[in-house]
Amino acid sequence: MMSKKSINRSVVKFVAGVTLAAVLASCSGSGTPTASTTGETTPAATQTTAAKDAAPAASNLSGNVTVDGSSTVAPISKAVAEEFAKANPGVKVPVGTSGTGGGFKKFCAGDTDISNASRPIKKAEEEDCKKNSVEFIEIPVAVDGLTVVVNKENTFAKCLTVAELKTMWSPDAQGKITNWNQVRPDFPDAKLALFGPGADSGTFDYFTEAINGKSKVSRTDFQPSEDDNIIVKGVQGDKNALGFFGVAFYEENAATLNAVEIDGGAGCVAPTAENINTGKYSPLSRPMLIYINKKSYSRPEVKAFVDFYVANQSKLAKEVGYVALPSAADALIADRVKTGKTGSTFHDAKAGTPIVDLLK
Predict the structure, then answer these.
(1) Are 78 and 43 in contact (CB under 8 A)?
(2) What pLDDT digit, counting tens, does each position of 188-229 carry?
């Protein structure tokens, strides 16, 4: 089960340009997802209060709304489900954490109503949905900044360029780039210990595509884990270690880790909420997405849940430590759901493209 730790969050106002691409895939059918730990892990949703005033009047709805996929997005979906249940106790909303890729397998087979995703849907996954006549509506629900972290005793790696991260993580680095001074000559001659999410993780996919140019193209001689707590402990326990995961999980562990600033070509930028929102934190800012099975949306309990999600995602995303979407995105998202616009807008989007522009 995911940790119930509280998250140290910053109160955030989204400035107009959020970065990157999101994917919405639609699939039909519904079933019961099996919760697992094969996906990327981030802090669990805490008890939320932000949407209390917006909760719908008590209803007589009943049934199940099945949600699975990214455990990075799961805290938001769980927070929404928790608030929704207060006015709709007859509707059960189990949220599985099979990982982004595992979630899409179930979704495109027609086994789930909603798929959480920490990266846009891939063309091959879209094809799987199409084969099974699963149409989907894609909407972003928050923004995340992948955060590179080092041990508290590391005082030299305060900022790294994208090129230096590629030197560390490219397939060509395997067995060759083993010391810090191979990354930058003025770094110490100390063994480089790397920790990161496993290959089934959407976080791993997004990081490797942003840094190495293609998802899943990475060195493999690092310490992988689907549990971000393991990555945290690995970096905490080795003064020469480096790892990465979502900003919300970093904020929970900021007292014991250092966040590395990233130079994407315009100088060193820290993964703060403002920098993630405005697109300055490039190329490691990314949208958090959900994909809604269009056929499922015709069921009243699914429609009620999705509509509640759309109305409250900004408040609840901030409560669980993520960056809320710009207010200009709200009406565009609501319209996309209302009109049933299907297909993915985000999978081919250029890094740095504002989310509002993509939604248009």
Answers:
(1) no
(2) 999 999 999 988 788 898 899 899 988 779 999 999 997 888
